[in-house]
Request: fold
Amino acid sequence: MSGQYDYIKRNLEIIRERIEKAAAKSGRKAEDIMLVAVSKTVEPEKIIKAIDEGITELGENRVQELVQKYDIINRDCNWHLIGHLQTNKVKYIIDKVKLIHSVDRYSLAAEINTRAQKIGKKVDILVQVNISGEQSKFGAAAQDALELIRKISELENLRVRGLMTIAPYTTNPEAVRYVFSGLRKLSIDIEKENINNINMEYLSMGMSNDFEVAIEEGANIVRIGTALFGERKYI
Ligand SMILES: *Cc1c(COP(=O)(O)O)cnc(C)c1O
Reply:
């Protein structure tokens, strides 16, 4: 039987093959790479189709949208907050997210910690770093990341699990390879510091048009929207 959302199944097959090939280039397997399906602006029916095809991780960049979909999509799946997070909105998502990818300042980390404490939970986070230095991107500056992470390490209800970055938009992924290798090098430097409560097991980097290069450079979380669900109608 074929349905109107079968293209999602086909897209997912293609993405999985591409992940497998890129992983092989860096001596890894497809299973070592976590695929976060970025469902921002995508209608619930399409998201459910993706879940039915095996997607377990969903990424949203806006708090309100995540909260709405969390209630609507009544399936066994994990939610990731991947976009800029305002401190006053932490309370809405604290009990809903598996991983917050976009912690880029101490005040935000402190608020997540306070809210996590209140509900007796340890929350996994990634520290977002602006490797490219592009003005329009959020993220801590690379030279400030270590100091930020040292401060965050004192927050008992947070667990730093790694780093995240967003590369500048490009149609030529080779042009942003340095961003991915830069994040990887930074994570190695931070790992060497052996900071209590901090580990660098995850590198969240790579989107629809650059995920293969990101995987070659060590990504083990990729965040893919367009290549799975098609072009977004709005941002
Ligand atoms: C939208 C978004 C993505 C996915 O982008 P695509 O190019 O559609 O794959 C990944 N990460 C973040 C932070 C995003 O906001």
User: Anything to note?
Assistant: Residues 38, 40, 61, 82-83, 166, 207-208, 223-227 surround pyridoxal-5'-phosphate (CB under 6 Å). The beta strands are 34-38, 57-60, 78-81, 97-103, 123-130, 140-141, 158-164, 198-204, 221-224. The mean pLDDT is 96.
